[in-house]
Inverse folding.
């Protein structure tokens, strides 16, 4: 688990990619419980 691992924060920084481990916007990084709408068509 280090620079070569794409699943870790350090690996994401090394690769220059973003994802769950390294969100682009730190404020939006945490997943919030969204209301599911039941009225789909």
């Amino acid at each position: 688990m280090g620079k070569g691992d794409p699943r870790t924060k350090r690996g994401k920084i090394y690769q220059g990619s973003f994802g769950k481990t390294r969100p682009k916007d730190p404020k939006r990084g945490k997943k919030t419980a969204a209301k599911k709408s039941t009225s789909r068509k």
